[in-house]
Specification:
The complex is a heterodimer of chains A (181) and B (175). Helices cover 26% and strands 24% of the residues of chain A. Chain A has 181 residues and is of the alpha/beta class. Classes of the chains: A alpha/beta (181), B alpha/beta (175).
Chain lengths: 181, 175
């Protein structure tokens, strides 16, 4: 490890350099954060980049998969060709200099498909189901993409910015007689 | 002791013979037994449940009021304590648990969330379980203190001793 430190004498984390080298065309942005690295990658190469991070750079632990609805954030929208959603992966490694890395994938509203990473991390299963439930992102290759938090017959995706806080009358229309318990 | 007091308060025709025999009505005895052996079914989904645990533990000790036999099976309990937020996905479960409880049964709605939704005026939360369950006693507070829960249990006891029917009772068990 001490030998490696000498190599990284310049401030750039070694992970960032490797990613820039390998995914030069796919990276839309990258930055250093207070405790790691954040990269924005286009949708077509997201799986390849995450696979590379897991297999080659030992990011064995998938901390979280979630999404952000940027529809009220004009600055963010302009930056990534008006992609409404940003799917976010948080990774952690138990070895190396930069323990945490955040991978963001812009997703357009008209094409909500993102490749599932359940084949890389089994723990992604429920996290992707939650993102599907709350934002309507479709994870291709997911073994069982059902709602996980809301009732099965729920319509809409409540964490989208255009979803009203008090709902669209679910509370009033709710009929427990018809619900399967 | 409690039995004798009851009779004096209720003014029922009671005679004592040599201090050993008490005449009363069977209903009064049954109600007296019921009120002092309420078996609660806890339905704790949020911080109110923590206060409920404190109420049951030694410091506040709900067993002083005969309600220490917490049952986690609805079929063995007669007092449902709803303590916490109930979402639209949880409501069918709660309703089924209530339906499984044998009559007569009482419901305490503990805290702001169970009673009216509290601060969670959102798409997913039931704005008061009394829309779907017959609630006998409401407890305000966020969360209520253990004393408030004890007070609610005592209110249920008073209702039982008076012979009042629970809100959810369809048949007059007391007649």
């Amino acid at each position: 490890m001490s030998e490696e430190k000498e190599v990284t004498e310049e401030t750039q984390p070694i992970v960032l350099e490797k990613l820039r080298e390998k995914f030069a065309d796919a990276l839309l942005a990258d930055a250093e954060t207070s405790n790691g690295v954040a990269v924005v990658v286009n949708k077509d190469n997201s799986y390849a980049l995450l696979e590379y991070l897991k297999t080659e750079l030992a990011y064995a632990f998938l901390v979280d998969v979630t999404a952000v609805d940027n529809s009220n954030l004009e600055s963010e929208l302009m930056q990534y060709d008006y992609a409404r959603f940003m799917v976010v992966y948080h990774l952690y490694t138990f070895e190396g200099e930069t323990p945490r890395i955040r991978v963001k994938v812009p997703v357009h509203e008209k094409d909500l498909k993102v490749t599932s990473v359940t084949t890389l991390w089994k723990g992604a299963n429920w996290l992707e189901r939650e993102t599907h439930d709350m934002f309507g992102i479709d994870f291709e290759g997911h073994p069982d993409l059902r709602r996980i938090l809301m009732p099965d017959d729920f319509e809409g995706h409540p964490l989208r910015k255009d979803y009203p806080l008090r709902g669209r009358g679910e509370r009033e229309r709710f009929n427990f007689e018809k619900q399967n318990v | 002791m409690g039995l004798a007091n009851t009779h004096i308060q209720s003014g029922a025709s009671t005679e004592q013979t040599d201090g050993n025999i008490i005449t009363t009505t069977i209903d009064k005895v049954v109600n007296w037994g019921r009120k002092n052996s309420l078996w609660p079914m806890p339905f704790g989904t949020a911080c109110c449940a923590i206060e409920m645990m404190a109420t049951l533990a030694s410091k506040f000790d709900l067993s002083r009021f005969g309600s220490e036999a917490i049952r986690f099976s609805p079929r063995q309990s007669d007092l449902l304590i709803v303590s916490g937020r109930i979402s639209i996905k949880m409501m069918p479960v709660l309703k089924r648990i209530y339906d499984q409880m044998p009559d007569p049964k009482w419901v305490i709605s503990m805290g702001a969330c169970a009673s009216c939704g509290g601060v969670f005026d959102t798409y997913t939360l039931i704005q008061g379980v009394d829309q779907f369950l017959p609630v006998d006693v409401y407890i305000p507070g966020c969360p209520p203190r253990p004393e408030d829960l004890i007070d609610a249990v005592m209110q249920v006891q008073r209702q039982i001793q008076k012979g009042e029917l629970p809100k959810g009772s369809e048949v007059a068990y007391n007649e």
